[in-house]
UniProtKB/TrEMBL annotation:
Membership in a protein family: Belongs to the FldB/FldC dehydratase alpha/beta subunit family.
DNA repair found in the keyword field: no
Transmembrane segments: none
Protein name: 2-hydroxyacyl-CoA dehydratase
Keywords of this entry: Iron, Iron-sulfur, Metal-binding
Domain of life from the UniProt record: Bacteria
Record bears the keyword Metal-binding: yes
One Pfam family named in its UniProt record: HGD-D
Cofactor(s) needed: [4Fe-4S] cluster
Gene Ontology MF term list: hydro-lyase activity; iron-sulfur cluster binding
Amino acid sequence: MADYLKMWQDLGMDVEMHNQLCEVLPQAFGDVYLTQKNRPEAMDYFNFVVAEIHGVRPVELIEHQKKGGKVFGTFCLYVPDEVVFAAGAIATGLCGGSQFWVPGGEKVLPVNTCPLIKASVGARLDRTCPFFRIADMFVGETTCDGKKKAYEILGEDVPMYVMNLPQMKRRKDILAWAEEIKDFIKVVEDFTGNKVTEESLADSIRLINAKRTALARLYDLRKNENIPISGKDVLVISQIAFYDDPTRFTEKVNKLCDELDQRVKDGVSVFPKGTKRILLTGTPLAIPNWKLHHIIETSGAAVVGEEMCTGIRYFEHPVDETATTIDGQAEALAERYMNINCACFTPNDKRIDDIIRLAKEYKADGVIDVNLKFCELYDTEGYKVERALKEAGIPILGIETDYTDSDAQQLSTRIGAFVEMLSK
Ligand code: SF4
Ligand code: SF4
């Protein structure tokens, strides 16, 4: 990584502690990613982004701030990036996916909080992530209880705005979410000093839709019998989607897809013929959480899709671009975002339908339902997921894990046995 020490110091980071993270991350990325054979050339860009993760994008965000621009940090798919970009600001993801940040979160949160929340709080309070230092405002949402309470703690340290997400999906809930989006537009306008106009919102809807379309193209390529790219590589791209400049990201994903199109034409696969295909479902896998994909793909199977927020939930359902008023655009955004099936909703049967649909579309031989430890929502929903998949005749394995490596061996054994069972 280039020398960003001065920038990290200026951001008030705990540089000494942060150095420990900088020392282990390249090794982890090397072990998990660079050992793969026959990776697409266009992955070079994404390798670079990870190698420079706490440098190159933070520099761009700070440049933007020097010109008077604002940066908004978000934690969930429901917060509409479109609104932020429409006000000339930048949205960046803030979810923490490393065990490194967990102890910092445990200083203020109950230990039995999910690692995603603990890591996200720890990254801010321990001052060991530049993104958490740069964001001028954090935007939370009322999804799960753990997050709601964590936002109150974060709000004592940084300007925090929380969007009130309904927990059902009736027509009146969708309209309530459209109202909430309009309130968010006002908050963003006040904070940035810039007006969100019909034109600027239409532009940012197109911008984010283009990103979603590129990701959909990438995921479609995984549906081929010859799988042109590993699940691990797609996972890191999905994770980078939360941070990178959307225009550049879209261009790089499309460039990769051009290369993968050629691979499909040439019958190239990164897995041997007959490799079992796995669809993952469950809680998000924030960067740099690559553990499960690595275990699965070194256990003789391939991950062909993720029904997750770091996956298909992120890009399916583009926003309708035809609305021409702020009211109409807010409603179009609400309709789109309420199509995301998070376990915080009740009922949430559409998620279960989706898992079955996606298992068929991606020709999965089996599904692994991944639950981050202490996430009650996804854990409880797992009961219905498992039952529905069994009824549909789709093999399923439920697992619970966290960010540590202490269960890696045990997971390898269970996943290995599952893959073997699929081969019989
Ligand atoms: S799982 Fe739910 S709460 Fe978490 S990021 Fe996804 S939509 Fe948001
Ligand atoms: S994984 Fe579960 S507990 Fe953790 S933030 Fe997401 S919904 Fe909340």
